[in-house]
Design a protein that fits this description.
Elements lengths: L6 E2 L7 H16 L1 H4 L7 E6 L5 H12 L3 E5 L13 H8 L5 E6 L4 H8 L4 E6 L5 H15 L6 E5 L6 H10 L6 E5 L8 H9 L3 E5 L2 H4 L5 E4 L10 H7 L18 E3 L20 H19 L5
Parallel strand pairs: 1-5, 2-3, 2-4, 4-5, 6-7, 6-9, 7-8, 9-10
Bound molecules: N-carbamoyl-L-aspartate.
N-carbamoyl-L-aspartate binds next to helix 3 and helix 7.
């Protein structure tokens, strides 16, 4: 029946208990990959990507392949029937007849809501415009949990494009559910966190501050979450060029950071983290991609009811 399958549009569609279950599953996948290598035999995942992606799409596909399943899909609107004018609703209705589970990325905020209304198989939002990116948040949460051994009582610096960065919005939504986290929002005025996310911080009674200065914020942080300025969401090139290199994390800036601060970035990186930082043991952004694959494996298993 239409609209009856489970859809993950926002990270809040998973309860804290469900997240805990997924972390435990991801840890078991890490320890015993062979236990899971045939779990999704004869199951198929569709990756419908209307917007460019390297990591998220290939991470979903590599997750499904590691579970013994199969994948199909497209990696750009121009190679799908969207270029002929087909609606998301119709594409999802058709794909529901072909596969067991769907992951979709779309440039329009809200497209996953339409998809969720039409899917008859589990559906996962793999990023919608500047809105949400729940599976990146699953990667971020597992990385934080494994590197800091907790998801509460942390001072988290979010730096860069807080306006258009959907991963930032989903991460804040998730971290607000854990107690005693503090937020330092580091951005220029033009790229401030949207009011609707600021309201959530207020409503939750969370401690937060806004600053333009990465240097001032760094010594206070347990987590530094760097982001790319989202070129594709700018209305004019001039603004992008003016803002794109506003923050560049260098080994020099890290001198004042805590020894156990974790540096995260959803990737792709442009200039905002100098490659010299990659050697620093605090750099966790490549490890984060491994966590992302394991969490997507856990989520696929869970949504297909194959986790036990
Ligand atoms: C992010 C995204 O697509 O929002 N990338 C990703 O999925 N790892 C971040 C970005 O594109 O800057």
């Amino acid at each position: 029946m239409k609209g009856k399958a489970r859809s993950i549009i926002n990270i809040l569609d998973l309860s804290v208990e469900e997240l805990e279950h997924l972390f435990t599953l991801a840890d078991d996948i890490e320890r015993n990959p062979e236990k899971y290598q045939d779990r999704c035999a004869h199951k198929q995942l569709a990756t419908l990507f209307y917007e460019p992606s390297t990591r998220t799409r290939l991470s979903f596909e590599s997750a499904m392949l590691a579970l013994g399943g199969q994948t199909l899909g497209f990696a750009g609107a121009s190679s799908s029937s969207a270029s002929k004018g087909e609606s998301v609703a119709d594409t999802i209705s058709v794909m529901s007849n072909y596969v067991d589970i769907i992951a979709m990325r779309h440039p329009k905020e809200g497209a996953p809501v339409v998809a969720a209304m039409h899917t008859t198989v589990p559906f996962i939002n793999a990023g919608d415009g500047g809105h949400f990116h729940p599976t990146q948040t699953l990667a971020d949460l597992l990385t934080i949990r494994r590197t800091k051994q907790r998801l509460s009582g942390l001072t988290i610096g979010l730096c860069g494009d807080l306006k258009f960065g959907r991963t930032v919005h989903s991460l804040i939504d998730a971290m607000l559910r854990y107690p005693d986290n503090r937020y330092i929002l580091i951005s220029p005025e033009e790229l401030r966190l949207p009011e609707y996310e600021i309201d959530k911080l207020h409503d939750a009674g969370a401690e937060f501050e806004e600053t333009r200065s990465l240097e001032e914020a760094i010594p206070k942080l347990d987590i530094l979450y760097m982001t790319r300025v989202q070129k594709e969401r700018f209305f004019n090139e001039e603004d992008y060029v003016r803002l794109k290199d506003i923050y560049i994390l260098t080994p020099d800036k890290l001198k004042s950071a805590k020894e156990d601060m974790a540096i995260l970035h959803p990737l792709p990186r442009v200039n905002e983290i100098s490659v010299a930082v990659d050697q620093d043991p605090r750099a966790k952004y490549f490890y984060q991609t491994l966590c992302g694959k394991q969490m997507r494996m856990a989520l696929i298993l869970y949504l297909l009811g194959l986790d036990q």
